[in-house]
Amino acid sequence: MKEAVGNKVVLIGAGDVGVAYAFALVNQGTIDHLAMIDIDEKKLEGNVMDLNHGSVWAHSPTRITSGTYEDCRDAAMVVICAGAPQKPGETRLDLVDKNIKIISSIVKEVMAHGFDGIFLVASNPVDILTYTTWKVSGLDWQRVIGSGTILDSARFRYMLGELYETAPSSVHSYIIGEHGDTELPVLSSATIAGVSMRRKLEKDPELEPRLEAIFETTRDAAYHIIDAKGSTSYGIGMGLARITRAVLQNQNVALPVSALLHGEYGHEDVYIGTPAIINRQGIRRVVELEISDHEQERLDHSVRTLQEIQSKFF
């Protein structure tokens, strides 16, 4: 991997998610240059102008341009938010056939222009499309990251914080597995303000169904948001910005992303949501959580669901 010039990011797909991500990046002042690519060139031009005007008030200046694939040549990261969006009533896995074709085409074009950085994939179904990006790009797996369960984990932490009247930053719990209907909460290693959730469950047998209800609300939140406003955008946009910051600032921080398993949790050859250490090289390593037998069974089911879909294309 060659050293990228500066902190340049190319964003491919400037729809609701892409623009929310761009807005978060500009506000946080994480990058030097954001080049945006989208098939709707007129709308893209308007978004670029709008973001540039707002950058006056940002923490630090960001150059924002309408880009081309040539911009990928010296980019530190390419972030893919393109693809057919999830519609009301659709699951993320319903999108797989059409979006594999779209993402494959995009990745081939990026690589043809000399890209040698890190991919970050947000398009759904994100685990399958991150695997697609890895296969098509030919890059090392550490340099291909999916947004995974970063949004699901944030939603769960927020809701647990509401329950315990505690700031989400003091709630530590992960959602792992498919970013979709087969994901699961890891309560066995969760803590609230430093107190073990396992201990809370042992003391209060009525707590488990309440937590399961909170998880179900977390899992199904996207359906409600899509029904209400057409798409999810702000939460995932901020999550993508957090991953970007972890990469470009070489933070070595654990974040719940879609990463390739190499025997962790007893599985391999599948991208799936799990904590991983993120730094300037991409994924430094996957973090294998201690999970209960019941959680392992649920994760096994999630892996099988993804691999059954994956096997039809690879």
Describe this structure in words.
This protein has 314 residues and is of the alpha/beta class. The protein folds into two domains: 8-146, NAD(P)-binding Rossmann-like Domain (Rossmann fold, 3-Layer(aba) Sandwich), CATH 3.40.50.720; 150-310, L-2-Hydroxyisocaproate Dehydrogenase, Chain A, domain 2. It is built from nine helices and twelve strands. The strands form three sheets. The chain has a six-stranded parallel β-sheet, sandwiched between helices. Helix 3 (96-112) runs parallel beside helix 4 and helix 5 crosses helix 7. The radius of gyration is 19 Å and the shape is globular.
Which terms would index this structure?
single chain, Rossmann fold, 3-stranded antiparallel sheet, 2 domains, L-2-Hydroxyisocaproate Dehydrogenase, Chain A, domain 2, 6-stranded parallel sheet
Secondary structure elements and their pairing?
Layout: E1 8-12, H1 16-28, E2 33-37, H2 41-54, E3 63-66, E4 77-80, H3 96-112, E5 118-121, H4 126-137, E6 144-146, H5 150-164, E7 171-176, E8 184-192, E9 195-196, H6 197-203, H7 207-229, H8 234-248, E10 253-262, E11 268-279, E12 282-286, H9 293-310
Parallel strand pairs: 1-2, 1-4, 2-3, 4-5, 5-6
Antiparallel strand pairs: 7-8, 8-9, 10-11, 11-12
